[in-house]
Amino acid sequence: MELSFEHLQSAHCENGVTRSLLNNIGVSQITEPLAFGIGSGLFFVYIPLLKINNGPVIAFRVMPGLIFKRTCKALGIEIVRKKFSSKEKAKVFLDECLADGHPVGCQVGVYYLSYFPKEYRFHFNAHNLIVYGHNEDQYLISDPIMENTTILSDYELERVRFAKGTLAPNGQIYYPKIAEVVTDEQIRKGIITGIKKTANDMLSPMPILGVNGIRYTGNRIKKWRDSLGEKKSGLYLAQLVRMQEEIGTGGGGFRYIYAAFLQEAHAYNPVDELLEISKAFTQSGDLWRTAAVQAAGIFKGRIGTQHDFNVMGDYLLEIAEIERRAFVALSKINWKG
């Protein structure tokens, strides 16, 4: 059984799943940047006491499923979203969804994704993909970050849907119900709500969240060489880069997507500040990429003096200030209508 479904490649998994699932029910206006912005996907948190792959948790995005949930809510689209404790019940529900004609989004761990290159497989449980069919003992998979569709066996899909560890998926499955016509006014209001939510999150007074969290991380990095030693501090920086620019997309990639979102938002809300603030996120994205190169140089052993760690930390301090000013400006926009 193969449902009629168009595979759309995207930069980030949940943005892409959201866009594709909405496109499948006829909501074709939602681009990847619009899904990311309306769904308030941009976030930052540094949790040193919680570990993934022996490094501190550094998250650049909201919890899995929230981009989809928030975007659909803004557009007035009802959703189905479930988690399971039983693998058997999770499979039965998945098969029922497909039999009823619903391609579904699934949260999975990437470590056992057989079609992923080995260098990208590690214990990260916040990936999202779409299941759009089932033939004998194989499921048909549309993974938005891949160029083409692929397949997973029954066992392989079960294994990644019930991966263990931090942010365990617990079989999470979701899809939108049939939508009414989505209007430009709904999208316009959704954009405003999404911007306000993201600005509020990123300007949080909590020291480990938002721009404060970026600043806090930058200051911590300057101390890592002395407090952790060269080997462990290098591994921490490798973790940062992995979440930032590889599997996580969240550093430069998210800033470029958010810049594109603000440009697209201008078409629905012709507020000139949006275009100017968009440039700040492009600048921030460039700095995140530069910081990633610096971090890679340290953990690969090409550089590694205290000065190199200071430079790395200063990049994040500069990013934090650019983004603070940008989100303050967004929070002060006088929306028309």
Sum up the overall morphology in one term: globular
Radius of gyration: 20 Å
Give the N-to-C terminal Cα separation.
Answer: 47 Å
Q: Please identify the structural class as seen in this structure.
A: alpha+beta
Q: What is the total domain count?
A: 2
- Biggest sheet features: 6 strands, antiparallel
Number of strands: 8
Reported by name, the CATH topology of the largest domain is: Four Helix Bundle (Hemerythrin (Met), subunit A)
Strand line-up across the major sheet: 3-8-4-5-6-7
Discrete helix count: 11
Description:
- The longest helix has 28 residues, at 272-299.
- A hairpin with a 2-residue loop joins β1 and β2 (55-61).
- With 337 residues, the protein is α+β, with helices and mostly antiparallel strands.
- The protein is globular and about 60 Å long.
- It is built from 11 helices and 8 strands.
- The chain has helices at 13-24, 32-38, 66-74, 87-99, 154-161, 184-202, 210-228, 230-246, 252-268, 272-299, 306-331; strands spanning 42-52, 55-61, 79-82, 104-108, 127-135, 138-142, 150-153, 173-176.
- It folds into 2 domains: 13-30 and 79-176, Alpha-Beta Complex (Cathepsin B, Chain A), CATH 3.90.70; 184-331, Four Helix Bundle (Hemerythrin (Met), subunit A) (Up-down Bundle), CATH 1.20.120.
- The strands form 2 sheets. Strands 3-8-4-5-6-7 form a 6-stranded antiparallel β-sheet, sandwiched between helices. Strands 1-2 form a two-stranded antiparallel ribbon.
- This is DUF4872 domain-containing protein.
- Pfam families: BtrH_N, DUF4872.
- InterPro entries: BtrH_N (IPR026935), DUF4872 (IPR032369).
- Residues 156-330 form the DUF4872 domain.
- Residues 12-144 form the Butirosin biosynthesis protein H N-terminal domain.
